[in-house]
Amino acid sequence: MSKPVVAIVGRPNVGKSTLFNLLAGEMISIVKDTPGVTRDRIYAEVNWLDRDFTLIDTGGIEPDSNDIILSQMREQAQIAIDTADVILFIADVRQGLVDSDAKVADMLRRSKKPVLLVVNKVDSFSKFMPDVYEFYNLGIGDPLPISAASRLGIGDMLDAVIAHFPANETEEEDDDRPRVAIVGKPNVGKSSIINKLLGEERVIVSDIAGTTRDAIDTTIKHDGKEYVFIDTAGLRRKSKIKEELERYSIIRTVTAVERADVVLVVIDAVEGITEQDAKIAGIAHERGKGVIIVVNKWDAIEKNNKTVKEYEHEVRRVLSFMPYAEIMFVSASTGQRLIKLYDMIDIVIANQNMRIATGVLNEIMAEAVAMQQPPSDKGKRLKLYYITQVAVKPPTFVIFVNDKELMHFSYTRYLENKIREAFGFKGTSLKFFIRERKEK
Ligand SMILES: Nc1nc2c(ncn2[C@@H]2O[C@H](COP(=O)(O)OP(=O)(O)OP(=O)(O)O)[C@@H](O)[C@H]2O)c(=O)[nH]1
Ligand SMILES: Nc1nc2c(ncn2[C@@H]2O[C@H](COP(=O)(O)OP(=O)(O)OP(=O)(O)O)[C@@H](O)[C@H]2O)c(=O)[nH]1
């Protein structure tokens, strides 16, 4: 179930960040201890009326000259067209209708994507509404007046956004072929991996630009089974601005990960693992997707027995938030171990979908509690009543306790380890919710 993506586009100073922060700050639950893409405010998870969506801010523009503004707006708009299901085009009632607005509106209209024209800074409807009508001239529908600063019109705007989402039952949901996103920094070898896999197997089809998003998926048949690869390689825009490139690559990653069951996070063995790799891996982790760390270019590493261990140690250190992820050392150049990826993908998908019977879970919890006493505070000890699995993808558990405050993070981690000892769950994160139940 991939979440819809909503992108914000607009001239400098129209209030994009204000709107983004308003929607993000109040309506998201930020997953804390993952390295920071969320904090970069490039994207946020938003919930409105029980619909979840990913909001992306396509970028800040340096207001140098009008020429540059227009070309950067075009770039933003293109990113939005490539990745979003709904585009919020923000204008400013106080700046009025500007030439670059009209040009970008043309571009958005031709894309045939759903576009909502949002006119910001309408701090008083009675005072500013007459100025809003001018925006009908853009030819992209009814302007929606809002004030991000005074929080006016936001609910109506969100209703309009949700009305444009694809129906809940999308084709992707009927499709039970594994969907595998290949993500990673530029130049780590994402396309080389796809090409090598393609070379070894029969290619079925290369899906034409999808209906909702135009990521080009590649379907490969291996051992009688089809796998859909979602590729983020080679899609760098020609922007000369480094921040813009990074932003684009993160947006691309988020939208690919969103559609995937399993994410291959590709790392360049020659370069070694970096913080940027951790950020990218964090995107898959936050979303509870299956993850495989693929250390590529292994052919180019001088090997002795220590190398793999040292390497693995370093990768685990930088990716300490996802100890469950499997690490594979491959070479797209020689094809070394690449074929093993399929088995690993199957295993990770099986683990993402694994359900453990309540009885067995409770036996394991009882044993764990017997081996290590739960924490206590001020004479009151944590009691664990009951555990049950409530969801898959990722496997999600609810633990009923006497007092939530007593459930220490480290004790949840301990129980998680016990569950993993029993069932493995390689390649997938596990989620835990702690609920209180009155003592009988
Ligand atoms: N009066 C009024 N001012 C607003 C409103 N929303 C934003 N502003 C102001 O407009 C200015 C620009 O807002 P930002 O959110 O930074 O605009 P932006 O579009 O993200 O700007 P760039 O980062 O330059 O692209 C700030 O001074 C905001 O306080 C609004 O609803 N009413
Ligand atoms: N030695 C070695 N080089 C590799 C391997 N895989 C890829 N390369 C080289 O790494 C460079 C980048 O490979 P690409 O496949 O284009 O990387 P990418 O991740 O798709 O890059 P972007 O399109 O920029 O995102 C090329 O010069 C490849 O030949 C490998 O397994 N071993």
UniProtKB/TrEMBL annotation:
GTP 1 binds at residues 10-17, 57-61, 120-123. GTP 2 binds at residues 184-191, 231-235, 296-299. Signal peptide: none annotated. One of its GO terms (molecular function) is hydrolase activity. The keyword Hydrolase applies. The keyword GTP-binding applies. InterPro entries: AAA+_ATPase, G_ENGA, GTP-bd, GTPase_Der, KH_dom-like, KH_dom-like_a/b, P-loop_NTPase, Small_GTP-bd. Gene3D superfamilies: 3.30.300.20, P-loop containing nucleotide triphosphate hydrolases. Residues 4-169, 178-353 form the EngA-type G domain. Keywords: GTP-binding, Hydrolase, Nucleotide-binding, Repeat, Ribosome biogenesis. GTPase that plays an essential role in the late steps of ribosome biogenesis. Belongs to the TRAFAC class TrmE-Era-EngA-EngB-Septin-like GTPase superfamily. EngA (Der) GTPase family. Associates with the 50S ribosomal subunit. This is GTPase Der. The lineage of its organism: Bacteria, Bacillati, Bacillota, Clostridia, Lachnospirales.
